[in-house]
Specification:
Helix content is 38%, strand content 29%. By secondary structure, it is an alpha/beta fold. The protein has two domains: 28-249, no CATH class; 276-401, no CATH class. Strands 1, 2, 4, 6, 8, 9, 11, 13, 15, 17, 18, 20, 21 and 23 form a 14-stranded parallel β-sheet that branches. A six-stranded parallel β-sheet has the order 10-12-14-16-19-22, with no helix packed on it. Strands 3-5-7 form a three-stranded parallel β-sheet, with no helix packed on it. Helix 8 (360-375) packs across helix 9. The longest helix is centred in the last third of the chain and has 34 residues, at 319-352. It is globular.
């Protein structure tokens, strides 16, 4: 049995603790934060896969609720490990791709390590680069190449060494170890108490602190509301250049949230298609085949489910069912845009003929992009978004009322 993973506090506002195992307890707060967490996971998938839906199936894949590779096992060639929790104590002679809620990498990766997780620990050596999209990350090992990604919090411990460059966006970053070359980053709270071999460039950050043990062997460039808090023992061998920025919310937060939301929907589509190829097609056909029926059912579900959930929550015996309905309602709100985007992609493919030559992922990408763009049109965007939700909920409701199961 795998040891439990230590959960750090979540620093992103609006996201609840992710320390409790999925399946043991589902909190409404955690579900409300699902969009951003899925968005983080997706960007990691995009970093690791040029065309997710097609390429995933080409990997040697190990997937389960709990995935564990013991210390005596060697994985040859690129491997994808996917599950709620992933533990890797073995060796991989090739690139390692990890998609999980929580992951601990103790073994050696003789290639690149690409991860999309909520919680990630890298304790073993990596011969190539690390590309990561995650919630909370700790690095305690040597990385021969570069480290890049977008995270909520990133801690590089004293024993850790990044052999080349460090490029990231983070709410919180703590450096105690060594980065041999440059750091290029944006974030909220940045703390450096380690060594940087060349230059540090920090753009649109909230605050910067340099500890007693910090040593920057090149130049320090940063833009923030206030000057850095630099301890007496800190060393900056090159020039310092500070540019004052004004504003409570840093721009990167807004753009990252938009990107995370969009890419999150791409990931959810790709993962479901991997394990259930017909899932989205069946839902899309409900909309393209019977659009008015789906719309009517969606309107009914949109207004009925929250009222029914509230009524059940006011009773004692109905509380569990009320919570399930409430959670289901939030999930349906999230999935609706994915479902309608898939339907839009199917329509585009049929009318253009691209469905004969183009991979379904790219059709979905086109459809989702169209749905998002139309829903952002001034004055009518809110109505489009509402209709999208109704259609998505209606497609699911229609499937539930039909005889055949989803997918």
């Amino acid at each position: 049995m795998m040891p439990s993973f230590r959960a750090r506090p979540a620093f992103m506002p609006g996201i609840g603790s992710t320390g409790e195992a999925v399946g043991n307890r589902i909190s409404l707060q955690g579900v409300i934060g699902l969009r951003k967490r899925l968005g983080l996971i997706l960007l990691g998938m995009v970093l690791l896969l040029g065309s997710p839906a097609g390429l995933v199936q080409a990997f040697q894949t190990v997937s389960n609720d709990t995935v564990y590779i013991d210390s005596g096992r060697v994985l040859n060639g690129p491997h994808l490990l996917a599950g709620q929790s992933v533990g890797f104590d073995g060796t991989t002679d090739g690139d390692l791709f990890v998609v999980a809620r929580s992951a601990r990498i103790n073994g050696r990766v003789k290639g690149d390590l690409i991860m999309a997780c909520q919680e990630a620990e890298v304790n073993g050596p990596v011969d190539g680069d690390i590309r990561i999209l995650a919630g909370n990350v700790s690095l305690r090992s040597m990385v021969a190449g570069s480290f890049s990604g977008a995270v909520e919090s990133l801690v590089i411990d004293r024993e850790a060494v990044v052999g080349r460059d460090l490029v990231f966006a983070a709410r919180r970053f703590d450096l105690y170890g060594v980065v041999d070359r440059d750091i290029s980053a944006t974030g909220n709270r940045i703390y450096v108490d380690g060594t940087v071999g060349r230059n540090v460039r920090l753009v649109q950050i909230g605050s910067l602190r340099l500890g007693e043990n910090s040593r920057i062997q090149g130049n320090l460039y940063y833009s923030s509301p206030g000057k850095a808090d630099i301890a007496g023992g800190a060393v900056i061998e090159g020039q310092q250049n500070w540019r004052k920025v004004v504003g409570e919310q840093q721009p990167y937060v807004y753009y990252l949230d938009i990107l995370a939301g969009f890419l999150g929907m791409l990931l959810v589509w790709a993962v479901f298609r991997l394990f259930s190829p017909g899932f989205w097609d069946s839902l899309a056909r409900e909309i393209t085949g019977t659009p008015w029926r789906s719309l009517v059912l969606g309107v009914a579900a949109f207004f009925t489910l929250p009222v029914l959930s509230l009524i059940l929550l006011l009773t004692v015996v109905g509380i569990p069912l009320g919570m399930i309905l409430g959670v289901s309602y939030v999930v349906l709100l999230y999935l609706s845009k994915i479902i309608v985007g898939s339907a839009a992609g199917e329509v585009i493919g049929q009318y253009s003929g691209w469905n004969r030559t183009m991979h379904p992922f790219w059709l979905y990408l086109l459809g989702l992009s169209l749905v998002i763009l139309v829903s952002r049109i001034p004055a009518i965007g809110w109505l489009v978004s509402l209709i999208v939700v109704w259609w998505g909920m209606g497609a699911v409701s229609s499937q539930l009322f039909s005889r055949g199961p989803l997918g």
